[in-house]
Amino acid sequence: MKVPIVFRPILLVLQIITLLTVPHLLFSQQVADSVRLDEIIVTGNLSKVNLQNAPMSISVISKNQIDAHKQPSLLPILSEEVPGLFVTQRGVMGFGVASGAAGGITIRGIGGTPTSGVLVLIDGHPQFMGLMGHPLADTYLSSSTERVEVIRGPASILYGSNAMGGVVNIVTRQMNHNGLRNSFQTMYGSYNTLSANISSNYRQNGFFANADLSYNRTDGHRPNMEFDQTGGQAKAGYDFSDNWRAFANIDLSNTNASNPGTLQTPMEDNDADITRGMASFTVENKYVNTTGVVKIYYNFGEHKINDGYVEGAEPKTYLFHSNDDMMGFAIRQSYSFAEGNQTTAGFDLQRFGGKARNRYIDGITPDFKIVDVRLNDMAGYIDIQQAAFDQKLTFNGGLRIDHHEINGSEWIPQLGASYSPSSSTIIKAIVNKGFRNPTIREMYMFPTQNPDLKPERLMNYEVSLFQSFPSQQLSFGLNLFYIRGSNMIQVDVVEGKPLNVNSGKVENKGVELDIHYEANRNLHFSANYSLLNMKYKLLAAPEHKIYMSGNFTTGRWNISTGIQYIGNLYTNIRPEMRKNSFVLWNCRAHYQVIKWMKLFVKGENLLDQSYEINDGYPMPGITAFGGVSIEI
Questions:
Q1: How far apart are CA 447 and CA 500, in angstroms?
Q2: What is the rounded CA–CA span in Å between residue 118 and residue 140?
Q3: How many helices (H) and strands (E) in the chain?
Q4: Going by C-beta distance under 8 Å and a sequence separation of 6 or more, which residues neighbour residue 102?
Q5: Contact at 8 Å (CB) between 403 and 378?
Q6: d(Cα 266, Cα 268) in Å, to the nearest integer?
Q7: Sheet strands side by side (includes 125-126)
Q8: I need a labelling partner for 377 at 20 to 30 A (CA). Which of 42, 45, 162, 346 fits?
Q9: How far apart are CA 114 and CA 94, in angstroms?
Q10: pTM tops 0.90
Q11: Cβ pair 74, 231 in contact under 8 A
């Protein structure tokens, strides 16, 4: 544990402030604005819908929630705020790639390591890599994020293969009124960790634009665990009228990460140099009875990886080098054919792949080709929503046909309903299918490759209740789900050799609870709990996950704290089953020095817990950070 001396008094102050404010928080009686159930959300291919009518379980994390965490990376925030969602970590900053990497996302136990069963979107733009088939967690930063919409459970009917477990849609920031707004934030703390970000947002009548530059680095809490990242994002568009708008996104980042290996098997020179980029162009239309979108997008990346060597072994004579890309086209249009009706039809086309080789350091030996392939996938879908009985009951049904160049066609059905006996109560039920095509990595790369792999499939059965009590400023959501899947891809020994095969099964059932309470305008509490019962144990999916937080504002001060319990997290399944349980307490304090400048401090793992999320990678103890935020 390395806590800078200058921050140790801050930790003590944070703990004292928390203890002193809790009694006041509990007995506060003033009432704030009403809690609304008709929040309008957009998740990529969906039309604008309200939470009351959507049959899926959807969590929305707001800009205020994101900003309060003072966390450069977006995913750890979601791991706390979204029930049923968990993200693996291995250090104070940075997830890394390849062997020993973290950043795996699971929703209700589905997602995989690496994450190929949960789809990440940026403004509806799919983010997975062409060769590896999974997103890169280090590229998703909180500084440019307006909000995050998470679909908990299969969303394959709208998004296809990688949405088997759910969807994380990151909505980027933009100005909604004329003017110019600039902001700067920097933070420094334990293990020489530095984070800096500068952004600018502009709107003038129909034209809007924003740009964001960031730099993050750390020495890490273990030797050979350095991490640094430089990234930039820009978005510009124009509202041609109340009915038509267009915008373009571009994002570019470079990440250098070192992997020290496990405590049992330390590594030397296990380094990665990753460049990722994306660009997209979107045209949207919005009328009384119809809305739609056309999107063209492109992802690309270059990976240079030194696999390193263990003590006593010889350094590798080659580096792994890959280039991948994905290009796609999506069109979706919704139309209301009658009162209470919304019918959505869409078409998706993707081409993804790339090439990978071992490039020898001597510059003489020819490259060894691992793979050079690109595949096509196309799909069409229809989703029908019909309200009845004075909008109290809404039926939903849909079907997708997805055709993969190698695996052929897959049919994905969905059937759901929502019932609102009053404006403060929603009851939902859904039955839907999720699926995932094997990735190019699983079929054609590395010793476990198997070109005969078939798609993974699962069925999800779910009922949910959402209840609000506006006069008490209290709301809660309750979900019960059952998931059963087959053909899960895992590594088995076949004829004495490890091989990717469709031998795995999934049978998960569980409960999710989400509670929000506003005691008054200055005080807010929230809590969520997830129970995941797995017949077949899965990595990176805790059986119990609890997070409780409080946020209090008084004068120029804002104080927030959160405590999380992770119970029975399986860090290893085969050959030996190992699990971990731990409690994490974080605390943050902000002070508004003047109108445009804010100082903040935060402490993490204040209970100094010893724990692992990735097997063999101990997490840091108490860490402390401080910084300044400026907005003009």
A1: 9
A2: 14
A3: 5, 31
A4: 87, 88, 89, 90, 91, 95, 96, 137, 613, 614, 617
A5: yes
A6: 7
A7: 57-61, 145-152, 166-172, 118-122, 125-126
A8: 42
A9: 15
A10: yes
A11: no
| Residue among 107, 113, 109 nearest 167 (CA) | 107
Please state the length of the chain.
632
Query: What pLDDT, on a 0 to 100 scale, did the predictor assign at position 100?
Result: 82
Domain ranges of the chain: 5-631
Q: Which residues of the chain have pLDDT under 50?
A: 1, 3-36, 45-47
d(Cα 423, Cα 443) in Å, to the nearest integer?
50
Q: Check the CA dihedral 53-56-59-60 and report its sign.
A: negative
> What tokens appear for 141 in the block?
């930063």
Q: What is the pLDDT of residues 255-278, one digit of tens each?
A: 999 999 999 999 999 999 999 999
On the question of a cis peptide bond just before residue 114, with omega within 30 degrees of 0, the verdict is yes
Please classify residue 77 by burial: count the beta carbons closer than 10 Å to its beta carbon, then call 0-12 exposed, 13-18 middle and 19+ buried.
buried
pLDDT digits (tens, 9 = 90+) for 509-562: 999 999 999 999 899 999 999 999 999 999 989 999 999 999 999 999 999 999
Is the Cβ–Cβ distance between 71 and 77 less than 8 Å?
Answer: yes
Strand duo 166-172 + 118-122: pairing: parallel
CB proximity list for 408: less than 8 A, separation 6 or greater: none
Which residue stretches of 241-399 are H helix? none
Nearest to residue 379, comparing CAs of 421, 340, 346, 355? Answer: 346
Q: Encoding tokens for residue 613?
A: 């999320």
User: CA–CA separation, 544 vs 9, rounded Å?
Assistant: 33
Measured between alpha carbons, how far is 290 from 347 in angstroms, rounded to an integer?
Answer: 17
CB 194 within 8 A of CB 215: yes
**Looking at residue 38, what is its pLDDT?**
52
CA of 535: how far to CAs of 368, 446, 483, 487, 538, in Å?
42, 30, 11, 16, 9
CA trace torsion 513, 519, 523, 524 (10° rounding): 10
User: Among candidates 473, 407, 447, which has minimal Cα distance to 161?
Assistant: 407
Neighbouring C-alpha atoms within 13 Å toward the C-beta of 626: 12
Task: Centre a 10 Å sphere on the Cβ of residue 204 and count the other Cβ atoms it contains.
Answer: 11
Contacts of 242 (CB under 8 A, 6+ apart): 286
Nearest-CA neighbor of 187 among 619, 618, 598?
598
pLDDT of residue 25: 36
Q: Please name the helix (run of DSSP H) or strand (run of DSSP E) that holds residue 631, with its range, or none.
A: strand 623-631
Concatenate the DSSP letters of all residues of 457-502 into one string.
Answer: EEEEEEEEEEEEEGGGTEEEEEEEEEEEEEEEEEEEEETTEEEEEE
Number of other CB atoms surrounding residue 262 within 10 Å: 16
Rounded to whole angstroms, the Cα distance separating 336 from 338 reads 6
Looking at the structure, give the CATH architecture of the domain made up of residues 5-631.
Beta Barrel (2.40)
